[in-house]
Write a structure and sequence with these properties.
The complex is a heterotrimer. By secondary structure, chain A is of the alpha+beta class. Chain A is about 35% helix and about 20% strand. Chain A has seven helices and twelve strands. Chain A is elongated. The relative contact order of chain A is 0.11. By secondary structure, chain B is mostly helical. Chain B has a single domain, classed as Up-down Bundle (Cytochrome C Oxidase, Chain A). Chain C has one domain: Four Helix Bundle (Hemerythrin (Met), subunit A) (Up-down Bundle), CATH 1.20.120. Chain C is elongated and about 55 Å long. Classes of the chains: A alpha+beta, B mainly alpha, C mainly alpha. Chains A and B meet through helix 1, helix 2, strand 7 and strand 9 of A and helix 3, helix 9, helix 10, helix 11 and helix 12 of B.
């Protein structure tokens, strides 16, 4: 583990420059101050109780020196930080737009080409991309450490940021502004594809959907979706109640809705809960789940049901 | 009709009178200081235990000790109690009350009854807040809207408690300003005042001018939740960022309400144990006022990523760099005071030197957060958590502990065990650094704050931080036991054990009820240590 | 008389002369007024921000307010400040009876202000205008409500001062509480002088 995460965007190196320069200056001053402090404390330690000390009350030249030097340094640092910031805030004209929506506690991404993904952000290597972001409920913050970008997301107003991913790979996207119980589970993956791979994804087969449907048995695919699409933010698989009911032992369970009617958790119940979660609310829970209509295909819903069945 | 002197030659220590009412109805600033001291210490210990629970949960990536919701409640309570109930009233109310009249040569503060009323208001605020703990909020101590306006937990009660507390803070600040202006002993000119008084003065100005703004902000939040108004709700035409502007307009000055009194304490301890005049008296005194003034102009540096305009961000970044300058000046002056001194490493001095060391780290890491480009990456990560704790624990709490050990003999007339005090200092110093230094790296790595669970790659540093918190906790425990045990010791403290020239050391330990048998006449400044050369005089 | 003066100072337990106590109290009160300005300042800032954001909404909504009632209340408060000032001058010259009556008139004006406000709020509620109607009315109710709270506190303080004045506790040598109460009342007046045009007139 290096002291600073991999630099995987065009901005990262520049931000690292600022951080590095401040770090070096800080280390210099810190070492200077603590060395002098310790040196004085040792050299002038009290040896006899009747030691004489000089009557020194100050020195104007010294005051001026240690006011002016830090001031100049600080102003230079301010300018350096500002110049890089200015660039971080100015997207190039050829950037493509992706609309980001933050909602307790998941991310949706709407692409310029009509595609829509949940908790997975696909971007093309070396192409500048601009995030147009809005929150549905409370404050969130879009943060990708490897790209050194962060921007709060507000309800009722658009905010934006941009970057050019430079390295193919998968990175963490965090919500950095506290947003409630599921805050620490409001995670997404940023998937940087090479131009060729991105073209394949863009043409429709969707790299991962294609792979999902083709290669995995339903229960395993369900387990994958459970993690990737953020079900795990609210539904545990160990019986504990986080936000929503736990998936453990859910299949076949009976219970009561808020309106008093009862249900049995069969295939139809689970499907309806995924696609129309606001229709009926199980007693004791809040109506907070978003609909996954259009996000999960029929096959994927079936896979999730299969996965839940395995959680006895 | 001239000034009476208190013609009472029998020495009765202010602690003499016993019984509940003698405390509950006291207008003696020293007793009120003790009431605050006990209250804030209790909140410090409670909130500290909450912190240990949080660190325990964070030892592993998963939620295996408490649920995410419980974790969120824990950090909300830890932050709110520490900030509003311990560290904001903290040094200012406890040691400020005890020391201001003694140091300026006054029998009491200007408004003794109002002083008692302030404590009662503090008490009412704490009772409301303790009641609020029955259904604790989960908003974080910053109460950011719209989450705080929409969460199901009870936000109104705790914010109301904080609102009530604000009055206590305002009245105390007002009392201190008037006291310092009007109650100084003859000859105690402004430039002879101990630096703790200058610091308390700057703090009081901040309390007076900033606290009403957070008061009205919290009222607006309460109205938002109870009357359905929409100042901060975009659906009703409001603006969630407005809350942040209002909140930080208070809470950034509040940071200096917390730290400036500690700086004052350090400026008292270092000269005494170096037997040297404080270096650059005026620079330190006026830098306190400078910090207080600039602190009103930097609030939006908490909001560089929150959607404020680039122009605003640039201006606030620049002003933030300015506030670093008076802070740096203080650090240099403290170190210069040590030069050619006769330094005794008493436990109080160890805390003071620890303060300089840790506060330097806190201040330097603040430069990262003031620089726009670096802040974008570091904002809302553990880097901020670490920076804030280096300033608040490394700064204020170190100053608080230093003050406790320094004025303990004066306040209680007893001595604690000095060796145990040194041991607990060592554990606190080491434990603190092991707990919070790794968090700088966690932050640079990208670990967001306020996470109940976290990705596995952060586990080793997180676990290290948790181990550190145990050492820190042990140190605080030993210190607490040592100080409490000292109260029951038979060893009486001398009047002036360190050879200090400050007025509070010229009266018996503990001081009599009205402090001075006769109001003293001051002829020199407080820091006349060392041998004056003939030419200087 | 000398005796009585000393008693007041003794209350403090500090052995202050009346002159010292006067200086202390006056400085304290001015500082307190400073915090009050900051308190209302928060709401005035919110007013400025939202007014800049929604000029039409503010224009439209402020027409719902009853200017006549607002104007009457403004006159009442300005008049009460005048009577208060006369009361303070009277006590400084030792005219206890006149001072007491003037404070009484001030209190009656304050109550009158409250009555007008009561009918005004009542009319708003009758038209289904509540604090959550829109941002303008949120501000209107919060600002006038907070001001009203200050009026009530002022009335309670003046009530106590009036009783003590009639009992002859104050005179030309010792009138600090009357002056402090007067300062507070002027603040209440001053805040309204800003509230009235901002809410009722310029919208």
């Amino acid at each position: 583990m290096t002291w600073i995460p991999e630099a995987a965007s065009n901005l990262a190196g520049k931000v690292d420059g600022v951080i590095l320069v401040i770090t070096l200056i800080s280390i210099f001053f810190f070492v200077l101050i603590s060395a002098v402090l310790i040196y004085f404390a040792v050299k002038y330690r009290r040896r006899r109780d009747d030691e004489e000390t000089p009557y020194i009350t100050g020195s104007e030249p010294l005051e001026i020196i240690w006011t002016v030097i830090p001031s100049i340094l600080l102003i230079l640092l301010f300018v350096y930080g500002f110049v890089v910031y200015k660039e971080m805030r100015t997207p190039p004209k050829d950037a493509v737009d992706i609309t980001v929506t933050g909602k307790q506690w998941l991310w949706t991404f709407d692409y310029y080409n009509g595609k829509k993904t949940l908790n997975e952000l696909y971007v093309r290597q070396n192409r500048p991309v601009r995030m147009i972001m809005r929150a549905d409920d409370v404050l969130h913050s879009f943060f990708i450490p490897q790209f050194r970008v962060k921007q709060d997301i507000l309800p009722g107003r658009y905010t934006q940021l941009w970057f050019t991913p430079t390295k193919v790979g998968t990175y963490d996207l965090f919500c950095a502004e506290y947003c409630g119980t599921g805050h620490s589970q409001m995670l997404a993956k940023v998937i940087v594809l090479s131009p060729e791979a991105y073209d394949i994804w863009e043409k429709g087969i969707g790299v991962d959907e294609g792979a999902n449907v083709a290669s995995l048995p339903p229960a395993e695919l369900g387990a994958k979706i459970y993690k990737e699409k953020g079900c795990n933010a609210c539904h545990s698989i160990d019986g504990s109640v986080v936000i929503g009911p736990s998936f453990k032992g859910l299949y076949g369970k009976t219970g009561v809705f808020e309106d008093g009617s009862s249900y049995t958790a069969d295939e139809n119940y689970i499907m309806k809960s995924i696609l129309e979660p606001q229709e009926e609310i199980v007693e004791g829970f809040q109506p907070v789940m978003p609909s996954f209509k259009g996000i999960l295909s029929d096959d994927e819903v079936t896979a999730v049901i299969a996965y839940i069945k395995t959680l006895k | 009709m001239a000034n009476h002197t208190i013609a009472n030659n029998v020495y009765v220590p202010f602690l003499e009178q016993k019984g509940f009412l003698s405390w509950f109805l006291t207008t003696d600033h020293k007793r009120i200081g003790i009431l605050y001291l006990i209250s804030i210490s209790l909140f410090f210990l409670i909130a500290g235990i909450l912190a240990l629970l949080m660190r325990f949960e964070l030892m592993t990536p998963m939620s295996d000790f408490v649920s995410p919701h419980t974790y969120n409640v824990l950090f909300t309570l830890h932050g709110s109690l520490m900030v509003f109930f311990f560290i904001v009233p903290g040094l200012a109310a406890s040691f400020g009350n005890f020391l201001i009249p003694l140091m300026i040569g006054a029998p009491d503060v200007a408004f003794p009854k109002l002083n008692l009323a302030s404590y009662w208001i503090y008490l009412v605020g704490t009772i409301i807040t303790l009641y609020a703990l029955l259904s604790p909020a989960d908003t974080g101590w910053t109460f950011y809207t719209p989450y705080s306006a929409t969460t199901d937990t009870d936000v109104v009660m705790i914010t109301f408690g904080v609102f009530v507390l604000g009055f206590s803070s305002i009245l105390t600040g007002m009392n201190f300003i008037v006291t310092i202006h009007k109650m100084r002993a003859p000859g105690m000119t402004w430039h002879r005042l101990p630096l703790f008084i200058w610091a308390s003065y700057a703090t009081a100005v901040l309390q007076l001018l900033a606290t009403p703004v957070v008061g009205i902000t919290l009222l607006m939040l309460i109205a938002e939740r109870s009357l359905g108004v929409g100042f901060f709700d975009p659906a009703k035409g409001g603006d969630p960022v407005l809350f942040q502007n209002f909140f930080w307009f208070y809470s950034h000055p509040a940071v200096y309400i917390m730290i400036i009194p500690a700086m004052g304490v350090i400026s008292e301890i270092i000269p005494v144990f170096s037997r040297k005049p404080i270096f650059g008296y005026k620079a330190i005194a006026y830098s306190s006022l400078g910090i207080a003034f600039i602190s009103f102009l930097v609030w939006a540096h908490h909001m560089f990523t929150s959607g404020i305009s680039e122009v605003a961000a640039t201006i606030f970044s620049f002003l933030t760099f300015l506030v670093a300058i008076p802070t740096a000046i203080k650090v240099f002056n403290w170190i210069a005071t040590l030069y050619k001194g006769s330094i005794e490493l008493h436990s109080a001095m160890l805390y003071a030197l620890g303060f300089v060391f840790l506060f330097t780290i806190g201040g330097l890491t603040g430069v990262f957060l003031g620089a726009l480009a670096a802040d974008i990456h570091l904002h809302d990560t553990y880097f901020v958590v670490a920076h804030m704790h280096y300033v608040m624990i490394g700064g204020t709490v170190m100053g608080f502990f230093g003050a406790l050990h320094f004025w303990y003999p004066k306040w209680f007339g007893k001595m604690f065990n000095e060796s145990v005090a040194k041991l607990s200092w060592f554990l606190i110093f080491v434990g603190f650094n092991v707990t919070f230094f790794p968090q700088f790296f966690l932050g640079i790595q990208g670990m967001p704050r306020r996470y109940a669970t976290y990705p596995e790659e952060f586990e080793s540093l997180m676990a290290l931080s948790t181990y550190g918190s145990w050492i820190l906790g042990l140190g605080v425990l030993i210190m607490t036991v040592n100080l409490i045990k000292g109260l029951y010791s038979t060893e009486k403290a001398p009047q002036n054990p360190y050879g200090s020239l400050s007025l509070e050391w010229q009266v018996p330990s503990p001081p009599p009820t009205l402090n001075f048998e006769e109001i003293p006449t001051v002829t020199d400044w407080t820091y006349g240590y060392g041998k004056k050369k003939e030419v200087d005089a | 008389m000398e005796q009585a003066n000393m008693e007041h100072a003794e209350d403090h337990g500090l052995h202050l002369t009346p002159e010292q106590e006067y200086g202390i109290s006056k400085l304290g009160m001015w500082l307190f007024l400073g915090t009050e300005i900051m308190l209302f300042g928060g709401l005035f800032a919110a007013y400025a921000i939202f007014r800049a954001k929604y000029p039409e909404l503010f224009l439209e909504s402020h027409q719902e307010l009853n200017r006549e009632m607002g104007a009457v209340n403004t006159c009442i408060l300005i008049f009460s400040s005048l009577t208060m000032a006369i009361g303070v001058t009277a006590i400084q010259r030792g005219k206890q009876m006149l001072a007491g009556i003037m404070i009484l008139v001030t209190i009656i004006c304050g109550l009158g202000f409250g009555v007008v406000k009561y009918f005004e709020y009542g009319a708003k509620f009758a038209h289904h205008i509540y604090p959550d109607t829109n941002i303008f009315f949120s501000l209107y109710f919060m600002m006038t409500g907070l001001h009203m709270l200050h009026v009530f506190i002022g009335l309670a303080v003046l009530g106590v001062i009036m009783v003590l004045t009639f009992k002859g506790k104050f005179n030309e040598k010792y009138s600090t509480p009357v002056e402090i109460g007067g300062l507070y009342w002027h603040l209440v007046d001053l805040v309204w002088i800003y509230l009235f045009p901002l809410l009722y007139l310029v919208g």
